[in-house]
């Protein structure tokens, strides 16, 4: 509580006030002390000032001094309330509704990918171990908002990790009771204390001291000296703001602590999407360079527990493939499919996948059952036609929506040819099936512990897929469609916040013409297409 950092936004302030408010009856004059903070909760009222800082510090002192923290009475039953969030664990030791001690613990990187059940179990174990002098040899209660943990002592131990945690509870006499999260506010707030501090983001502040690290590295120190003395003879290297760049990529010394942060951001985040080695490597290598980066990236991905849990080995099927002809223009020939049977998320339970067959650029559109051909057509116009126009052809399976008279007549009027894949043979439209598989894997990895929140991840899934490197294109779908990489703020470039186009984007000339770029893409795809259809 004493070390609680100043809230930076409304959500953090609500978390702090939620915790302190839970024990307001133990704090004399709580409303008066917290009044300046409560005013900040009004709409557009979050403007942190000296008055708020003073109230914040006073409230922390009030929460950690007598009469708030009770003296334990060993003749009464102790209660341990625990909770776990995505980034941390929290617990409160109580008697008669009053707090005796608080605990909050930030999760280490190796524990971030654990399931909700495992995190809640860890919160119980850490809390009991911390307050061992109070609890050992006495009967006590544990309150948690994970209902399945009520039967912890009766459950079959499923894995080595669970066995390890359960073993740490041997010798304690306790019962576990379920307490809904809305009633478990204190432990919940403590568990979320680290939510923002633990987020992996590469900011300008992260590069402070990087110059000193490079100076300590013997090899890079020599390179910097050569570039400073004879820049014309070392054109691959540039010095900007004291940082060294190799072919437009920021150089990091081997073993830098920043490398782990970069790996997390470009693999574990919504942008990285837990991609495989090749695509993660392409994404990172467009911005950064360090010695041995290929092996480090490969080792990091192989050790990713979320990837191991949610992915499977994809092997090429036996036999010859019969791919569809390559289109000549973007968004003239597309494919469509549905991903159904998803858990309800904001009322949605289906995803309509639309893929441009030339550039692989895709749109992921959520739908809610029940829907008909008219509903699908309206969504298609709102999300696809308004941007790309009506296509010349659509490849789809034989779903009743695509076979309906409304759908057929609508696209007949638009001059669109409807092509259907062979029944019970989804390989006929293999491209869309591959996109579906990628999307499903992404959503499993990112929304894993909260599958009913997949709709929130869908825009990020679309961005992730369209900015991922595709070997058949030798670029990303975004670049294949627009002739350039998406604008991105490459954080850490001397504090600049200007948008940087592409990986090594100093060129200020005209962008590559779209038609010329598409011709290059077609030339990349054609040899592979001919190889697939060539007889043995």
From TrEMBL:
Q: Which PROSITE patterns match?
A: INTEGRASE
Gene Ontology terms, MF aspect: catalytic activity; nucleic acid binding
Q: Does the keyword Phosphoprotein apply?
A: no
Q: Which UniProt keywords apply?
A: Multifunctional enzyme
Q: Which residues form the Integrase catalytic domain?
A: 321-485
Kindly list any coiled-coil regions of this protein. Answer: none
Q: Which GO terms describe its biological process?
A: DNA integration
One Pfam match: RT_RNaseH_2
SUPFAM superfamilies (UniProt xref): DNA/RNA polymerases (SSF56672), Ribonuclease H-like (SSF53098)
From what superkingdom does this record's organism come?
Answer: Eukaryota
Q: Where is the signal peptide?
A: none
- Annotated protein name in UniProt: Integrase catalytic domain-containing protein
Native source organism of the sequence: Cuscuta epithymum
Give the organism's phylogenetic lineage: Eukaryota, Viridiplantae, Streptophyta, Embryophyta, Tracheophyta
């Amino acid at each position: 509580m004493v070390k609680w950092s100043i809230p930076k936004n409304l959500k953090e302030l609500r978390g702090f006030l939620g915790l302190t408010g839970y024990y307001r009856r133990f704090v004399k004059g709580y409303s008066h002390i917290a009044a300046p903070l409560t005013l900040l909760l009004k709409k557009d009222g979050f403007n942190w000032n000296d008055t708020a800082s003073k109230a914040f510090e006073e409230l922390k002192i009030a929460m950690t001094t007598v009469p708030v923290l009770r003296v334990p009475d060993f003749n009464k039953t102790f209660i341990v309330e625990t909770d776990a969030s995505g980034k941390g664990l929290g617990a409160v030791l109580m008697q008669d509704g009053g707090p005796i001690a608080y605990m909050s613990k930030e999760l280490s990187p190796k524990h971030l990918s654990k399931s909700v059940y495992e995190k809640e179990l860890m919160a119980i174990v850490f809390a009991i171990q911390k307050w061992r002098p109070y609890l050992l040899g006495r009967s006590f209660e544990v309150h948690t908002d994970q209902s399945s943990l009520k039967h912890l002592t009766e459950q079959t131990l499923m894995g080595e990790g669970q066995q390890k945690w359960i073993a740490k509870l041997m010798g304690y006499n306790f019962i576990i009771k379920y307490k809904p999260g809305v009633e478990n506010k204190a432990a919940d707030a403590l568990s979320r204390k680290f939510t923002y501090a633990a987020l992996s983001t590469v900011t300008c502040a992260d590069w402070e001291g990087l110059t000193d690290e490079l100076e300590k590295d013997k090899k890079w120190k020599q390179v910097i000296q050569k570039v400073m003395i004879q820049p014309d003879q070392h054109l691959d290297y540039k010095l900007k703001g004291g940082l060294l760049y190799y072919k437009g990529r920021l150089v990091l010394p081997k073993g830098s602590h920043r490398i782990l942060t970069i790996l997390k951001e470009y693999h574990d985040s919504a942008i990285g999407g837990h991609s495989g080695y090749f695509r993660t490597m392409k994404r990172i290598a467009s911005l950064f360079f360090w010695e041995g980066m290929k092996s480090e990236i490969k080792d990091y991905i192989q050790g990713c527990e979320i990837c191991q849990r949610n992915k499977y080995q994809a092997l090429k099927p036996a036999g010859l493939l019969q791919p569809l002809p390559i289109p000549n223009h973007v968004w003239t020939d597309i494919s469509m499919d549905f991903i159904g049977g998803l858990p309800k998320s904001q009322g949605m339970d289906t995803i309509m996948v639309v893929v441009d067959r030339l550039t692989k650029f895709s749109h992921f559109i959520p739908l809610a059952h029940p829907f008909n051909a008219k509903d699908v057509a309206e969504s298609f116009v709102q999300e696809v036609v308004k941007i790309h126009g009506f296509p010349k052809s659509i490849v789809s399976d034989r779903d009743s929506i695509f076979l309906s008279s409304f759908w057929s007549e609508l696209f007949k009027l638009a001059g669109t040819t409807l092509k259907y894949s062979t029944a019970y043979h989804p390989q006929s439209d293999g491209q869309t099936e591959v996109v579906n598989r990628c999307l499903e894997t992404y959503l499993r990895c990112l929304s894993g512990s909260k599958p009913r929140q997949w709709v929130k991840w869908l825009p990020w899934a679309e961005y992730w897929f369209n900015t991922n490197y595709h070997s058949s294109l030798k670029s990303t779908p975004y670049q294949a469609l627009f002739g350039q990489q998406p604008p991105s703020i490459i954080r850490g470039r001397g504090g600049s916040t200007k948008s940087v186009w592409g990986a090594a984007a100093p060129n200020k000339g005209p962008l590559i013409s779209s038609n010329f770029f598409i011709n290059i893409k077609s030339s990349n795809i054609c040899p592979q297409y001919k190889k697939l259809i060539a007889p043995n």
